[in-house]
Each structure stands twice: as structure tokens, then as C-alpha cells.
Design brief:
Helix content is about 40%, strand content about 20%. The chain has helices at about 5-30, 35-45, 60-75, 75-80, 135-155, 165-180, 185-200, 220-225, 245-255, and strands at about 35, 55-60, 80-85, 100, 105-110, 120-130, 205-210, 220, 230-235, 235-240, 270-275. α5 (about 135-155) packs across α6 and α5 (about 135-155) runs antiparallel to α7. The radius of gyration is 19 Å and the shape is globular.
Length: about 280
Amino acid sequence: MNNEISLEDSQKIALSVLERFHSICEENGFKYFLAYGTLIGAIRHEGFIPWDDDIDVMMPRKDFDRFVVFCKENEKNLYPLRLHNRENTQYYWYGIPRLSDMRYKYVVDNTYEKPFDIGVFIDIYPLDNYGDSYDEAKRLFDKCFYMNRQYDWYVNPTSQGSTLRSIPKTILHYYMRITRGKLYSQEIDYRIRDYILSNTNENNRFLGMVCFAGKIVLYERSIVKNIELIKHNFSGKQFYIPKEYDYMLKQSFGDYMVFPPEEERHPTHHYKIYIR
């Protein structure tokens, strides 16, 4: 392919997806806020971290579920945007959906991840209740982490790294395909959601992103007050951020105002974007 787009162009397109997402949320009363690296970018740069290659937003679970249903019911009207998840996109293994612009094509740049068909995207994370103690949170995290790991085995038969590491995963892959069947992709996100909802409640001490997390990050409900929102500049546009953004970012990243070493200032994801 010779129609690859630059990081700068990809950021501009992702920003346009975010603008459309913001409009949908405003029109339908869905609550969202900028999260993770995008929230750092908003505070530290008033826009993208210069080397960041995606946009992250978070939605309280109830708003997230309503948004997923909205996208499913309005798929034709949303074009060229489409919400992708495990249920509707073959070989998509991420445990959070992506809203993408399908005029562009996402191509994985590795050998251990099966290709799936999306475009320039924003990541959408659900914010869940997370228990009343660290031990309760860890049980939730461990269970969700293992369920996601199993789904990775189901979708991707090889591992990152040596061929030797891929042998046991290949065996697990075929075992999972046989034992879970063809409908597993239609069920896995609901299984994880139902597990979280059945083991938490609206009065839990902690909130957090648990369904597809790499580590445990807990937000005290008494501090974030169910996430109060304010508007903030991001690349010349106004989007929602948490009022307690400083506390939330420090919980995840520590001193987020300190720049990483020069050698770490590059995109961290393994994909390229092309014009279709």
C-alpha cells in the first residue's frame, strides 16, 4: 500500500470522530469524558500529546451501555462512523469498543494479531463500580483479566515473541475454538459485564475501569463524586473532562506533567492507517 496517512493526519481524523461522538452524547444525554493519554494531552498540551496515536474517552457504565445500543440501532445513519466490538467485528479481540471512520483502513503491524477491519478510531472505556476494598477490586480485576486472556487465546493463535512461546498458545487456541464454539464472540463482552454488575453496586467505595484493564486503578467515590464534569480545550475544541482530573491522572500515572524520556516519545500501538 502506498496511501498511508501520517500521524498528524490520523490525529486530525480522530479529532473529527471525537467531535461527532461529542455531538451524539450531547444530543442523547450520554455522559463521557476524556481519559488516559488524551486527558494528559488536554491538560499538558491542550491537545494531543505530540506522539500519541489515538483518543481515549470513558463513559459511566449506564451511559456506555446506552451508547452501544444507540450505535447498533443507528448503524446506517452513523456512516462513515461505525462502532466496533467483539460482537460485530471478526477477529476484534479488544475488550472495549472503538468508534471508527471507515473511510480509512487500520492495518496491524505485527504477526501475532489477526487483522480486523476498522478505521481511524477513538477508544471508549466503560467506568464501573469497583468494590469496597482493594481485595474486592483485585478479585474483579483478576476474573476480567483472565476472561479477556481466554478470548485472546480464542482469536489469536500465536504469541508476541518467539515461536516457542506460540506453541502452547496455539494449543489453547484450538481448545478454545472447540469448547467455546462460534457464538463465543457474541457473548464474551456480556459475560464480563454481567460478572462486574453482579459483584458491585452503586454505593461501592471505588470506581474504575475493570473490564479491559492492564492494572488496578481505583478512584474514591467520595473524591470524584460519581465524576463531576467540566469542559476543557482540546485542539481548539471544547470537550468534557473530570473536575477531579488531577487526582484521577495521578492515580493512573503519578506526576503526569513530567515528560517521558526522549526515546519513549513515539506511538506505542502496532498499526498503520491507510486511505481505503
